[in-house]
Write a structure and sequence with these properties.
heterodimer; A: mainly beta; Immunoglobulin-like; three-stranded antiparallel β-sheet; globular; B: alpha/beta; Rossmann fold; five-stranded mixed β-sheet; flat
């Protein structure tokens, strides 16, 4: 019985530690090129959610990527915004890059960021 | 009779040839447009410029107001200073929609470039006996703007050599506090294109 209780507690702990992935690579090959170091968010004084992604281009080449963000309200309904269009961002060789985005309204509390290779 | 037959054959052949040469029409997938860039401005450029402007405005807190109240925003002149026949509403409308949805502003259509003449026409009915007078807007009900959005889209052409040209487009926007006349936010997006001199940028 004690063993079951311990296993159950462990399971709870593990599931509690599993965090949602806020960044998704559209093309799997991007994983070999850039590494996401952190995804931070904060609620500003005006109630808007601000997100900052820090990553690193681990190659010896300057590269251009693109990202888009989908926003949802607390009930999981999508909030359309211009940030759901693809936006380019540069990643200089062997250097950190930052993506900084603000939610389209106070209602936008959940987000998902997609990163893809640029199509130029 | 032979002449008629001959003309029918020629007409049919011409039609077949023409339809064979016609380029197939495809619908643009605006969510993932992999089409070639053009030297002129297209919807992708307006999306980029509007998106950057709104992000910058919201990050700047220039539109924040006490007690979550909204500003009243008037659309002033946004000038097209390019060689292209574009309607600057392609840019302004996207910004208006996004700002309205942000909960930060109401856009007034009472004055400015977004003016809806019905605001005045509906009030002109005050003397018209055909209209139930208590359904007509009273005097002093319109709200004056406390913010104004103005700007310019600028184009600069540079010849790199006889075969290549560079076209720079500047999207310049200013948010002015009407009471003080201060520019409380300003933004600029540069979109640069390089291509054949034979490409037309207007």
């Amino acid at each position: 019985m004690k063993l079951y209780a311990t296993l159950f507690t462990l399971l709870l702990l593990i599931s509690g530690c599993a965090s949602k992935s806020y960044v998704k690579f559209v093309d799997n090959s991007i994983e070999d090129v850039i590494e996401i170091k952190s995804v931070n968010n904060r609620v500003k004084e005006n109630g808007f959610t601000e997100v900052q992604i820090k990553g690193e281009n681990e190659t010896d080449q300057y590269m251009l990527f693109r990202y888009r963000v989908t926003w949802e309200d607390k009930d999981g309904f999508e909030i359309p915004s211009l940030s759901s269009n693809w936006t380019e961002f540069p990643a200089h060789k062997n250097a950190m890059f930052r993506i900084n985005i603000i939610g389209p309204s106070k209602k936008a509390t959940e987000y998902q960021i997609y990163i893809d290779k640029d199509i130029k | 009779m032979n002449k008629i037959k001959l003309s029918l054959v020629v007409s049919t052949l011409s039609l077949l040839l023409l339809s064979g040469c016609a380029q197939k029409v495809t619908k643009i997938d605006v969510n993932n447009d992999t089409g070639e860039q053009v030297m002129g401005l297209d919807y992708r450029d307006f999306n980029q410029a509007a998106g950057e402007a709104v992000q910058s405005m919201l990050k700047s807190s220039a539109l924040d107001k006490k007690n979550d109240k909204r500003h009243v925003l008037a659309i002033s002149n946004v000038t097209n200073d390019t060689m292209q026949h574009i309607d600057t509403d392609q840019l302004v409308k996207k910004i208006r929609v996004e700002l309205l949805n942000s909960g930060k502003v109401y856009v007034t259509t009472a004055i400015g470039n977004a003016e809806d003449k019905m605001n005045k026409e509906a009030r002109a009915l005050r003397e018209d006996a055909d209209f139930k007078q208590d359904t007509i807007a009273k005097e002093g009900t319109l709200i004056a703007p406390d913010m104004s959005l103005s700007g310019k889209i600028l184009q600069r052409n540079i010849n790199i050599n006889k075969d290549m040209q560079q076209v720079e487009y500047y999207f310049m926007l200013t948010l002015t506090e009407v009471k003080t006349g201060f520019a409380v936010w300003e933004g600029e997006t540069l979109i640069g294109k390089r291509g054949s001199s034979k490409s037309v940028a207007w």
